[in-house]
Structures are given as structure tokens and as C-alpha cells.
Amino acid sequence: MPRPLCATIHLDSMQHNLARARACAPQSKAWAVVKANAYGHGLERGMKGFAQADGLALIETENALRLRELGWTKPILLLEGIFDASDVPLLAEHDINSTVHSLEQIKMLEYTQLYRPIDVHLKMNTGMNRLGFRPDEYAAAYKRLRAIPGVRNITHMTHFANADELEHPRLTISEQVRRFRTGVEGLGGERSLSNSAGVLHQEVLAQELQNDWVRPGIMLYGGTPGGGRTAHDFGLRPTMTLSSEIIAIQQLEAGDTVGYGSRFEATGAMQVGVVACGYADGYPRHAPHGTPVIVDGMRTSVVGRVSMDMMTVDLTPVANARVGSKVTLWGDGLPIDEVAAASGTIGYELMCALAPRVRVSEGRMGTHG
After folding, report:
1. Are 216 and 223 in contact (CB under 8 A)?
2. Active site residue 35
3. What would the pLDDT profile of 214-263 be if each residue is shown by its tens digit?
4. How far is CA 78 from each of CA 100, 122, 187, 275, rounded to the nearest angstrom?
5. N or C: which end of the chain has fewer CB within 10 A?
6. From the candidates 39, 260, 279, 326, which is the catalytic residue?
7. Based on the domain organization, do 216 and 303 belong to the same domain?
8. What pLDDT does 207 receive?
9. How much is the pTM?
10. CATH code at 83?
């Protein structure tokens, strides 16, 4: 029998969340972001779950080619563009859109003869200060791209730093939109501004966020980008449930401790369940006492330090707990964002950290979502 730890991927929830993104931005086409192995869900499952997207966006050139091998015929976008001149012919050969964010990438396109034209997304740096041309540099970059015979359509693109917080004290979404409009003034082409946070605020900022394309990521997987509202508040459903079982039970007395470092000390008689899951599986080692878990449908919490292959949970609230009791670590009935917040991280990291040794299956989401 395999180890009882399993990540169940809910394709129906992926489809539901994409529909929610479309409902938020009904006038826009949608890139479904499937970078980082579809946020840990698997590239093939991402392709199936987001089959109704207008295109798939990711970082990894090799996975863009893999999508074509798997039969994806609609557009593909490389969000960081190409990394070497040898990648340029692949764009034309496999009809892949490339982000262009630097002069080096423009030069690669200028010095490579393309046997058929490609579409690109020209990225503007409106304050994120990672990739892209500043607004006062943008028109010149556009002009150089427009002069390349092998470049067909140019979409204008930026990325929001704080779209989850509309009135951020340092840089608001409105200020980034203002900078973007200044940079693209007089230039033809479609526009792509909104990540998940921008999409979720589309209804509030409809006049400002005029997107031809949106790029939802974390919201498609049932997480939120922050801002104090939960996935449930936005009508999103979990797409990954990490579940396991109790594999042993220990009876503790007052003064007994649990796990490495003896960090947890029992104040009285109690039962502790040992769960087949640890940090080598992708569960956060730094999850503190009190991080929520569900055992046989009852909420309880982590006690002691998470170890490589196991973790321990308080069975006090679970009257009939036994070896074999079902454990939900996040997902259906327990939002991943809640587990992440307790652990001082974000849901993105937990999804992406899922280890290859964890068994993965597909299944519909239950009634808790």
C-alpha cells in the first residue's frame, strides 16, 4: 500500500475559478497562468482545468514546448520572455508569444531572422522595479520592436505591485495605471495590466483597468493575493486538497514533550496523533503550535515541531480518533491561505512547494469548499 499522503487536484474548482475571473473582467481575454508546474498542480492538469482560457502563460521555455506537445493549440505567453538568442527560433516554430522587458531581448529579436512573424508583450516598469522599461523609455523600445520585420502584434503590459491594497501608502494601483497610460500614449496595440489582485478589483476600478487581456494566477488555484479578504469572500474554491492519515497515537501526561527540540509540553493528559506528512513533502517546517488541521472532520491543530516525514496534532477535540483517521492539511474545508497565514507565509509557497514524492490524484471537490 502507498503512503497515505495524497494531494487531490480538483479540476472542477479550477474551471469554476477561471469562470470567476471571467465574470470579474467580462470584456477581457484571459491568460491562465500555469508557471511553476501550474502552481504545483501539474502542467497537464493545469491545461485541462483551464481549457477554456484564451491562452496559457508561464515562465519556463521547456514547459511552453511541453504544452504544445500535450496538444495545446491556443496562445502561449512566456512571462519573462526568452533567456538566450537560441530561444528566438522556437517562438516562431511553436507560435509562442514572448514578453520583452529589456534591450538585450530586443537585440536578440533584431539579430535573428524569423521565418514567420511572432507576437510579443512589451513590458513597462510602472513601479514594481523588477522587469520592464520605464515610462519615459517605453516609446523608444516600442519603436525598435515595431521596426523588426518578424514582430507582428505588440501588446502593452505592466505588473501591479500592490493591487491587493487599493490605497497602498507607497504605490497605488491608480498611480501605476497613470504611469502606464503616459508611457503608451499614442501607441497602438492591446493592453494587459491585471494580475489576480487586479482582476478581483476589476469591478471597483472598471474605469481605470481597461484590459484587453488579464493574467489571473493565484485566484485560479483558490488562493487570494492578500488584502484581508478570503478566497470564499471572492467566490473562489480550493483546487488542491492535501490529505493524509493518523499513523500512530501517543498518550501523554502532564510534563511530557513532543518532537525535536521538545518545544511542546503537555499541561495534562492528552492524546497526540502522528500524521504521515512532513517538510520533505512540502508542509512548512516552521508551522507553529496552533496551525489548523482537520481530523475526521473536526478542527484541531499542530503541536510540536514538524519533522521531515511526520507531524503531530492534538487529538483532544477528536473523541474517536484512531490509527487510520483521515487528516486534511489544507484544501477542502481548510483554506490553504489560513494554513499559510498561521505559518507566516503565503498560499503560493505551499502549493509550489509540494514535493514530487507526494502522490497526486484528481477528484471533485466535496461540500466544504
Report:
1. no
2. yes
3. 999 999 999 988 767 889 999 999 999 999 999 999 999 999 999 999 99
4. 9, 12, 22, 39
5. N
6. 260
7. no
8. 63
9. 0.94
10. 3.20.20.10
